[in-house]
Amino acid sequence: MMKIRKLFYVLAFFIVVSIYHSGEVFAADEKEHLGYTVSMVQPKTQIDPKRSYFYIQTRPNEPQNIEVRIKSTKKEAVKIKIFSQNAITGNNGTIDYTEELADKDASLTSPITEMVKVETPEVTVENFEEKTVKITIMPPKESYKGVKMGALVFALDQGQEAKNGVATEFSYRIGLITSESGDEFTNGETLNLTEAKASIKRGKKMVLATLQNPEPKTVEGLTVSAELTKKNSEKVIKKKNVKNYAMAPNSHVDFEIDWGTNTLPSGKYMITLAIHSDYQEWYLQKEFTITNQQAKTINKESAFKIITPKWGQLTAIALLFFTLINSCWLMARRRKWEMEWEKLRRAKKRERLNKKNHKAKSQR
Q: Transmembrane ranges (predicted)?
């Protein structure tokens, strides 16, 4: 028993060591691949020093500088592009910083991308050197409520590979939030359902419900229950439930309901979103119409649909035809057998009757 226990401890030790070293190798490989690291220099205007991103206080029309250190991790030169992006709500209900995923919301004014001025948008580091990059934050002239949210991006410049469209984006991002008051910004209270429609997205037939957060605050920890019905009907055609949904300040997102491979029919529909967080509830509805032409176009252009080839249709028709002929033949044969059996049964009955009569005559 003691030997087994010792063997178990030895195996556990080697497993832990191997996992630890594999993590070290992965981190080293990733760092070596990028060739640089970035770290923020906490400014005096930092509202919360415990946060690992910039959360700074601003005053109207008063510029301020923030700094970021870029450190080389290899001898070869690395070229880095520096720019900013606004916070958006991603398709899966997360706060994202990939600006091309969504259009700017109508409620967003003076976004981070308009406030950030990078003095040196391209920096080259090499041979393990470290450089400090200065970034100017220029707040709007007018006072604003809530927060402005985005990120500073430090992307690896892959030169010709990027021009040829074969490069993979590698970058570091440091969050950037600005505020005049420093008040809580995760307690947004307003959600709007601005539009509902049928469309094609990523090649799929979908019903899209455009959900908007018009406030300069985030809305987090949402549970969303969506139901799609025909207008004036209680029968649920499609439904979707998600948890831990979040929305960036002054943003919108298309809440997606996948229609699947079935044909999308035209008609009048009603979509209902029941949303709740730990402290608030929303009940949103929107009517929309799918016209005959829209349904025809969407069903035709969708990449995800069941297509039966011509030969398959002809084969199915032929099989059906032969099945009908075979069924008729089997029914006719069975009818013939029943008639022959009935004749045989009657003949045997007459034979028994004749024998009985003959026996009776003999006894007389």
A: 311-332
Q: Which two tokens stand for residue 274?
A: 């029941």
Q: Reply yes or no on whether the pLDDT at 15 is more than 50.
A: no
**Amino acid, res. 339:** M
Domains and CATH numbers, the chain: 37-179 (2.60.40.10), 192-301 (2.60.40.10)
Q: How many CA atoms lie within 13 A of 269 on its CB side?
A: 24
Per-position b or e across 334-352, b if 16+ CB within 10 A of its CB: eeeeeeeeeeeeeeeeeee
Rounded CA-CA distance 281/93 in Å is: 17
Query: Which of 301, 79, 342, 111 is closest to 203 using CA atoms?
Result: 301
Decide: 38 and 69 in contact? Cβ < 8 Å.
Answer: yes
Residues 132-160, mean pLDDT to the nearest whole number: 92
Helices (H), the chain: 2-34, 112-115, 160-163, 292-301, 310-363
Provide the whole-model pTM: 0.73
Q: Which two tokens stand for residue 37?
A: 């690291």
66 to 80, 138, 152, 159, 169: CA distances (angstroms): 18, 11, 11, 28, 25
Task: Write out pLDDT tens, residues 182-241.
Answer: 999 999 999 999 999 999 998 999 999 999 999 999 999 999 999 999 999 989 999 999
Contacts of 290 (CB under 8 A, 6+ apart): 198, 264, 265, 266, 267, 269, 298
Q: Which residues pair with 284 in a beta bridge?
A: 273
Cα separation of 198 and 275, whole Å? 21
At 222, is the secondary structure helix, strand, or coil? strand
Sign (positive/negative) of CA torsion 193, 89, 265, 262? negative
Residue 318's CB is within 10 A of a number of other CB atoms, namely: 10
Query: Any idea which residue has 């297509």 for tokens?
Result: 307
SS3 of the chain: helix, strand, coil, percent, to 5: 30, 40, 30
So what's the pLDDT on residue 14? 41
- Round to whole Å and give the CA distance between 215 and 354: 105
Closest CA to 35 of 78, 70, 68, 69: 78
- Residues near 48 by Cβ (< 8 Å), separated by ≥ 6? 55
Do the bridges between strand 171-179 and strand 54-57 make them parallel or antiparallel, or are there none, so unpaired?
parallel
